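Lecture notes, part 5. Sequence design as translation. It can be helpful to think of inverse folding as translation between two languages: the language of shapes and the language of residues. The source text, in structure tokens, appears below.
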């Protein structure tokens, strides 16, 4: 069991779940309400990863609008309300996530989720996709004082899962995930199919996977290298 005692800390949006279509719909409902230009699905894929507040502000920036804090607070609450009512209309796990988790779990790994999404939304989404029970902890940005890329967010999710820092690895898709892993001093694997405005190679992770079927071997090589 090559992953005995290991905890794999997963990012959520763009890493485990393709959430962009539902986030896109909710974002454009807000843009429409505010009389701003619609954002494209590709825009959303570049804007996700720093939470709903950042998504809205980045969407508005496309129309050269910058909301003040109070307005942004209000719009974020509205966004969450819109998004959560139909959270998994189009969202789905990336191909082979479940079979890969089965395989890794048979090698001794435990899993948790460290996401810049709101915790309640993250749980609701994973429940809708029938996989919430697979994760020892699901920790969103609202549950910590400092979200990813701060190490506290990573450590909080890991501790809540009963994991050990020197036996943990981050798996994510964006600059926030690489930052959290580097700040916590742990290795990081990026998926090539996630949400980021910076190419995964430029983020210099320890490894990149193009499909979940590559994850077991990627982890094996990482551990053999002793990264
Ligand atoms: O930006 C978000 O809402 C969350 O993104 P994450 O799951 O990739 O951290
Ligand atoms: Mg992500």
């Amino acid at each position: 069991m090559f992953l005995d005692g290991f905890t794999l800390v997963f990012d959520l949006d763009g890493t485990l779940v393709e959430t962009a279509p539902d986030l896109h719909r909710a974002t454009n409902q807000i843009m429409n309400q505010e009389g701003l230009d619609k954002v494209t699905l590709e825009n959303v894929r570049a804007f996700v990863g720093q939470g709903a507040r950042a998504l809205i502000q980045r969407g508005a920036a496309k129309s050269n609008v910058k909301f003040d804090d109070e307005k942004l607070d209000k719009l974020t609450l509205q966004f969450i309300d819109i998004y959560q009512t139909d959270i998994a209309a189009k969202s789905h796990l990336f191909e082979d996530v479940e079979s890969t988790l089965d395989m890794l779990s048979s090698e001794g790994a435990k899993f948790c989720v460290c996401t810049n999404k709101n915790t309640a939304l993250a749980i609701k989404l994973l429940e809708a996709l029938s996989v919430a029970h697979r994760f020892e902890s699901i920790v969103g940005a609202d549950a910590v004082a400092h979200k990813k890329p701060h190490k506290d967010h990573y450590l909080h999710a890991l501790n809540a899962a009963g994991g050990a820092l020197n036996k943990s690895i981050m798996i994510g898709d964006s600059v926030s995930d690489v930052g959290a892993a580097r700040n916590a001093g742990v290795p990081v694997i990026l998926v090539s199919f996630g949400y980021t405005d910076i190419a995964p190679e430029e983020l210099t992770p320890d490894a990149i996977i193009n499909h979940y079927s590559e994850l077991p071997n990627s982890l094996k090589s990482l551990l053999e290298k002793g990264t």
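The translated text above is only one of many valid answers, since several sequences can fold into similar shapes. The chain has a mean pLDDT of 97.
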